[in-house]
Amino acid sequence: MSRIIRTSVLAVFGVIWLLPVYLFVVNASKSPLTYTSKEAWVPTDFALFANMGEALQLSGLSASVASTVIYSVVSPLIAVLVGAAAGFAIVALRLRHGFAWFVVIFGGTVFPLQMVILPLFDGYSRVGLFDTQLGMIIVYTAISVPFSAFVMRNFFTGIAHNVFEASVLDGATTWRIFRTVYLPMASSALVAVFILQATFIWNDLLLGLTLSQSDSVRPIVTTLSGMQSTYGGAQLSTVLAAGVLVSLPTVVLFLLTQKFFARGLALGQY
Amino acid sequence: MSALAKRTTPYLWSARGFIAPGVIIVAVLLYLPLLWTTYLSFTAYDGLGDPQWVGLANYAEMFDDPDFLGSLGNTLLWVVGTLVIPVGLGLALALLTWNLPGGVWLRLPFLIPYAISGIGVGLIWSFILSSNGALDQALGFFGVDETPRWLVDAPLNTVVMIVAASWQGIGVNALLFTIGLNSIPKEPLEAARLDGATGGRLFGSILWPMLRPLTTVVIGLSIVASLKTFDIVLGMTKGGPGRASETLALTMYKETFVNSQYGLGSAIAVFLTVVTMVASILYLRQQLSKKNEI
Fold first, then answer.
1. ABC transmembrane type-1 domain: from which residue to which, for each copy (chain B) (predicted)?
2. pLDDT, tens digit, for every residue of B182-230?
3. What is the DSSP code (8-state) at residue A159?
């Protein structure tokens, strides 16, 4: 009996929770020609893909999409490797004062980004990194390294040290042990960190707002924010379609991987 | 001696080489800017010429500024609101889906919003809450014609933005609490059930104490995240009307990049950082001392 009540309560609230998503998609699907703000709840036509195509032409969204794909692949990739290297140095190579060095790296994530954006803007302008893809890749890498080092250090702590010693007896160099023994063993953790950081970068607003201005460098969420204040009225359905386009990849990725993360979190791996 | 010998490594240079990239990236791109912001907070600077040392003048100006104080008030409202709603409802949701067949599927609708960016959430909710928008139309359907101006009247606009943020954040809190519930050992639960404990008693005497460490983490994360609230406010009201719904993170951004008040902006950033640190430390200390009493 209580099982039925629980299921019903959850189903009702689940539907309520999905209403904003319903409104989002329904209104993003309305053709700008017939769009009216008066009938938000009623689906009229299905022009979602046409609207997305239209949105890609506005505000240089298509150029933003291309750049953002680069940022959210390259930066987390570098960051997981840098983080894994740090974890390897501390755990496998038993770096002196290893924990202190770990705190130094992890400490980079404990304060708000507001604390670093002005000097980054100033410094980037001086050295020519402002409004460049390279500059964005570097800053996204930097903010991803602390969490990556945190997870990878934890993961490597779970690997018996005699794995390392056995490899040394086989005559392998440390670089070779890192590349052929530790990295492959950590592949699940590397993938998890990569996905989390890629999602974070994909959804970033503040760094894009501060460190870029041209269409081809601006990340998509920043571009979407600009579109929202520029276009209204009949073009609102196009802006909503841009919002769906920007949100879809992370929602799909998150839903596909949430079980995997729940299991990892439960095992205390991440 | 042996302990010391164990800690020294024959791979000194190799280890330094492996940790160097991480340390260098974090030092150059995060710590150096952090120090520079701290320095700038004691100066008058607009990006041109050199920063002029003014001591604590920026901090004094900050606390004399009604806009800053309003922003501080809004931020506190965010901290309290996102503690009560997403953490409380997240726990309720986790308890409802716990051990329920199909619970994984029933949780999905709450997880979707989490993957949407703050600007995306802001876009959806400003569409819903606009005047004569989806919510007003729905209320009109039920005969309510006089509706408040959701995004205009303060502090209502901050409250509805907290609701939007809760819509986004509840699922992940539920996921964390579910993980906590699943990791509770089965024996004490069975024993309590055999003793006839159900519902409220089971929760109060077994589940809540056992969830304590995880609750600490969830609440801590929630406080830190709400102090940094920026994306949703920019996406829904841009801090307006005027500056009525700004949060500290947004005020810092506007003073710095819109008004070119680098010194004042830096002082707000330092203040925000200090508040975040103090809140985390106080909270953790309080939780740890509670633990010791048991």
1. 72-283
2. 878 878 778 887 887 777 777 877 888 888 878 888 888 888 889 999 9
3. S
User: Which residues on A lie below 8 Å from B140 (Cβ)?
Assistant: none
Side chain identity, residue A88: F
User: What CATH number should be reported for the domain holding residue B150?
Assistant: 1.10.3720.10
B260 in contact with A, Cβ within 8 Å: no
Q: Which of B130, B272, B117, B161 is nearest to A251 (CA)?
A: B117
* Smallest Cα distance from B231 to chain A, Å: 7
Judging contacts by C-beta atoms under 8 Å, the chain A residues touching residue B128 are 20, 23, 40
Report CA-CA distances (Å) from B207 to A21, A139, A203, B90, B181.
33, 42, 35, 15, 7
Q: How many domains does chain B have?
A: 1
Is A18 a domain residue?
no
Q: Give the chain B residue whose CA is nearest to the CA of A247.
A: B116
Evaluate whether residue B277 is within a structural domain. yes
A114 and B269: CB-CB below 8 Å? yes
Which one, of A81, A70, A101, lies nearest residue B12 by Cα? A101
In a domain, B282, yes or no: yes
Q: Which domain holds residue B229?
A: 37-293
Are the Cβ atoms of B113 and A20 closer than 8 angstroms? yes
CB contact (8 A) between residue A17 and residue B133: no
And the tokens for B91? 């726990």
What DSSP letter does each residue of B180-212 carry, written as one string? HHHTS-HHHHHHHHHTT--HHHHIIIIIHHHHH
pTM for the complete prediction? 0.89
* B127–A contact, CB cutoff 8 A: yes
| B50: CB partners within 8 A, 6+ apart | none
Distances in Å between the alpha carbon of B197 and those of A225, B204, B205, B217? Answer: 52, 10, 9, 27
Token code pair at residue B70: 């309003």
**How far is the CA of A93 from the CAs of A89, A121, B6, B16, in angstroms?**
5, 37, 11, 9
Q: How many other C-beta atoms lie within 10 A of the C-beta of residue A199?
A: 21
Which run of H or of E encompasses B286? helix B262-293
Domain assignment of residue A244, given as a range: 49-266
Does residue B57 fall inside a structural domain?
A: yes
Of the partner residues B97, B115, B126, the one whose CB lies closest to the CB of residue A251:
B115
Rounded to the nearest angstrom, the minimum Cα separation between B155 and chain A is: 22
Q: How far is B222 from chain A (nearest CA, A)?
A: 14
Place of tokens 């010693």: A165
pLDDT level of residue A38 (50, 70, 90 thresholds):
confident
A142 closest CA partner among B24, B225, B19:
B24
Interchain proximity A115–B269, CB inside 8 Å? yes
Residues of B in contact with A17 (CB under 8 A): 109-110, 112-113, 167
Nearest to B126 by CA among A26, A240, A43, A14: A240
Asked, for residue A4, whether it belongs to a domain, the answer is no
**A7–B100 C-beta distance less than 8 A:** yes
For the residues B270-286, what does the mean pLDDT come to? 88
- Is A61 domain-assigned? yes
B90 touches chain A (CB under 8 A): no
ipTM (interface pTM): 0.88
